[in-house]
TrEMBL record, chain A:
One of its GO terms (biological process) is transmembrane transport. Keywords: Cell membrane, Membrane, Transmembrane, Transmembrane helix, Transport. Residues 59-266 form the ABC transmembrane type-1 domain. It is found in: Cell membrane. Belongs to the binding-protein-dependent transport system permease family. CysTW subfamily. The chain crosses the membrane at residues 9-36, 56-83, 95-117, 145-164, 201-224, 244-269. One of its GO terms (cellular component) is plasma membrane. Gene3D superfamilies: MetI-like (1.10.3720.10). This is Polyamine ABC transporter permease. InterPro entries: MetI-like (IPR000515), MetI-like_sf (IPR035906). The lineage of its organism: Bacteria, Pseudomonadati, Pseudomonadota, Alphaproteobacteria, Rhodospirillales. It comes from Oceanibaculum pacificum. It is a multi-pass membrane protein. PANTHER family: ABC TRANSPORTER PERMEASE PROTEIN, INNER MEMBRANE ABC TRANSPORTER PERMEASE PROTEIN YDCU-RELATED-RELATED.
From TrEMBL, chain B:
Belongs to the ABC transporter superfamily. Spermidine/putrescine importer (TC 3.A.1.11.1) family. It holds the Pfam family TOBE_2. Keywords: ATP-binding, Cell membrane, Membrane, Nucleotide-binding, Translocase, Transport. Gene3D superfamilies: 2.40.50.100, P-loop containing nucleotide triphosphate hydrolases. The gene is potA. Part of the ABC transporter complex PotABCD involved in spermidine/putrescine import. Responsible for energy coupling to the transport system. It comes from Oceanibaculum pacificum. It comes from the Bacteria. GO terms for molecular function: ABC-type polyamine transporter activity; ATP binding; ATP hydrolysis activity. This is Spermidine/putrescine import ATP-binding protein PotA. It catalyses: ATP + H2O + polyamine-[polyamine-binding protein]Side 1 = ADP + phosphate + polyamineSide 2 + [polyamine-binding protein]Side 1. NCBIfam families: potA. Transmembrane segments: none annotated. The keyword Membrane applies.
């Protein structure tokens, strides 16, 4: 009976697996294939990754922005999740709604909303000038600052949700016990709560960092062509300079970067535990 | 078995013992009084148990003592020093939580080191105290384990060691045995009591289990709806319950309603329906009286016993518990009475429908307040 039941479960995932094979795995193999065959067979596209300073710069910019975005997002997300795990049921529902709300807005709309706020003569600059704090427009747009602001905003739910789901499972009695045994509020947090929330923290860090690596729309709009991240350069190579070999190579290297990140993290933590498989 | 294990353990360090005063303590949640004007003295070195059903306020009193609950009114003093507004970490009380709350990411020895660690003692300097505490609860061989790798009883011991390692002024225990099975619970009752005797630390113990309260405490405080119902040593409470609630909550009781009808120096008579009973003590005539009668204080015989109180009845049901029979006897006049008799010397044939006589001495029962 058990065996036949197991077969039924496999049948349930067949459509999804087929969909992935046809529309995801096949094109992915195509990308990898083109990256070593265009314009001719070999690793010459990957050599450019080492030899061309432009590509170095783009990769460094990407990694820097991703790292800063990840640190800010996870820190803020931790604070929000901490508050959420402690407020009453009603406030929690409201907070959860507000966090999920951002998912319903297109990333394009959100990026343009930030443009409205950050541009010269935009809400922030005119407000600061109106208050007499600044004399001229602050350069808030078309730079890394703008890109990071937009990315942090987009990534927040991805940080809050795993951290919150981990924190809500931490028995409040551990911190109480620590206090009762003589720990100050800060010591109880540092020695007990923080280590216990580590799996959520790591899951959020991986999620945000990996998502950030491939970010396209937000950097393209808020960076305004001045801050070029890897995805935007891939798009340019594909559609404007028509260098498919380079585009597919960069896309593949992005994939490798993600796998490398996971491999590095896996050396230090049990990923199965982090992602709830055990 | 438990006792031989105790004898081989190291001698305890002597600890200064402290007293606790709770004065007019109240805690309101909205309009609900979880604790309602409770005053309590815990003398130094005592094992005091707060006993009551859920919602009686026992845990709230303990949590206020530990500093986790801010009282709405009243004062808590340790050796006459007010501590009501001190945060938990400034009180120096050891606490064993329900479910133990062992830190899951720390080994047994790191759990026990924790209270010393936050007091600025390095791991190497704490090693001796940690080892002594572990030996005190016979857990030295499992020092490197994680809490999840321990059984319930072992976790309980680690929680005790952790709560005692820093020589706390008081030890607070919140239903520490409730998660354990019956056999283990009985063993640990011996151990806790002997630990208390050896350490001399003042223990405040919260439970809803009357057996635990009776077996370990120097003093029991019975709580009901946020108020103290009765307090005293276990024997006094069991033998002389003041109210119906206490007689029913602490052990089991049969209750007989009647009317007092005059008496003499030996006692007075109680008319219960057509039956007249003899009750020790004194009571003005023509008062309603409620008598509580412990099931084990009734005798069951085939023939009419030579006792001041005797009534015939018929066995309606019985349960066998190995050491005892519990009989439910229909008496007609006094309703159904529950009787407990030692199974090994049961004189009657405990079969449903058999006719028996119940009897008891006038001082076997007590008059209780009906509430």
């Amino acid at each position: 009976m058990l065996a036949s039941q197991r077969h039924t479960y496999w049948l349930l995932i067949v459509p999804a697996v087929l969909l992935m094979l046809v529309f995801y795995i096949y094109p992915l193999i195509q990308v990898l294939w083109i990256s070593v065959t265009e314009p001719y067979f070999g690793l010459q596209n990957y050599e450019a990754l080492l030899s061309r300073p432009l590509l170095h710069r783009i990769w460094l910019t990407t990694l820097r922005i991703c790292a800063i975005t990840t640190i800010i997002t996870v820190t803020l997300g931790y604070l929000v999740a901490y508050a959420m795990a402690r407020v009453g049921e009603r406030q929690r529902t409201t907070m959860m709604f507000c966090i999920l709300l951002t998912f319903w807005l297109s990333v394009l709309i959100r990026a343009f909303a930030w443009v409205m706020l950050l541009r010269n003569g935009g809400l922030i600059n005119s407000a600061l000038m109106g208050l007499g704090i600044i004399d001229g427009d602050l350069p808030l747009l078309r730079n890394e600052f703008a890109v990071i602001v937009g990315m942090v905003h987009f990534m927040m739910p991805l940080a809050v949700l795993p951290i919150y789901s981990n924190m809500s499972g931490i028995d409040g009695r551990y911190v109480s016990a620590a206090r009762g045994l003589g720990a100050s509020p800060w010591e109880a947090f540092w020695h007990i709560h923080l280590p216990l929330s580590k799996p959520g923290l790591i899951a959020a860090t991986i999620l945000v960092f990996v998502f950030s690596l491939g970010f396209f729309i937000t950097p393209a709009i808020l960076g305004g062509g001045k801050v070029v991240m890897i995805s935007e350069y891939i798009q340019v190579s594909f559609e404007e300079t028509l260098r498919w070999g380079q585009a597919t190579m960069l896309a593949s290297s992005l994939l490798f970067a993600v796998l490398l990140t996971l491999a590095l993290v896996a050396r230090f933590v049990d990923l199965k535990k982090v992602f709830g498989a055990r | 078995m438990a006792e031989t294990a105790l004898a081989s353990r190291p001698e305890p360090q002597s600890r200064a013992s402290h007293s606790l005063s709770i004065r007019s303590l109240s805690k309101y949640y909205g309009s609900l009084a979880a604790v309602d004007d409770v005053s309590l003295e815990v003398r130094q070195g005592r094992f005091l148990t707060l006993l009551g059903p859920s919602g009686s306020g026992k845990t709230t009193i303990l949590m206020a003592t530990a500093g986790f609950v801010q009282p709405s009114a009243g004062e808590i003093l340790l050796d006459d020093k007010p501590i009501t507004n001190l945060p938990p970490d400034k009180r120096n009380f050891g606490m064993v939580f329900q479910g133990y709350a062992l830190f899951p990411h720390m080994s047994v020895e790191d759990n026990i080191w924790f209270p010393l660690r936050v007091r600025g003692v390095s791991k190497s300097a704490a090693a001796k105290s940690v080892a002594t505490s572990l030996e005190l609860v016979q857990m030295a061989h499992l020092a490197k384990r994680l809490p999840t790798q321990l059984s319930g009883g072992q976790q309980q011991r680690v929680a005790l060691a952790r709560a005692l390692v820093f020589q706390p002024d008081l030890l607070l225990l919140d239903e520490p045995l409730s998660a354990l099975d019956k056999k283990l619970r009985a063993d640990l009752q011996w151990e806790l009591k002997s630990l208390h005797a050896r350490l001399g630390t003042t223990f405040i113990y919260v439970t809803h289990d009357q057996e635990e309260a009776l077996s370990m405490s120097d003093e029991i405080v019975i709580l009901r709806d946020g108020k103290i119902e009765q307090q005293g040593d276990p024997v006094a409470l069991y033998e002389r319950p003041a109210t119906r609630f206490v007689a029913d909550f602490l052990g089991k009781s049969n209750f007989i309603r009647g009317q007092s009808a005059g008496g003499d120096a030996q006692g007075f008579r109680v008319k219960a329906g057509e039956v007249t009973l003899h009750q020790a003590g004194s009571q003005a005539a023509d008062q309603p009286v409620l008598i509580a009668l412990r099931p084990e204080k009734l005798s069951v015989t085939r023939a009419r016993p030579d006792l001041p109180n005797a009534i015939p009845g018929r066995i309606a049901a019985f349960n066998y518990y190995g050491s005892t029979f519990h009989l439910q006897v229909e008496t007609g006049a006094l309703g159904d009475l529950i009787v407990t008799v030692p199974a090994w010397k049961c004189e009657i044939d405990p079969a449903i429908g058999n006719e028996v006589w119940l009897g008891w001495e006038p001082d076997a029962s007590v008059v209780v307040r009906d509430n």
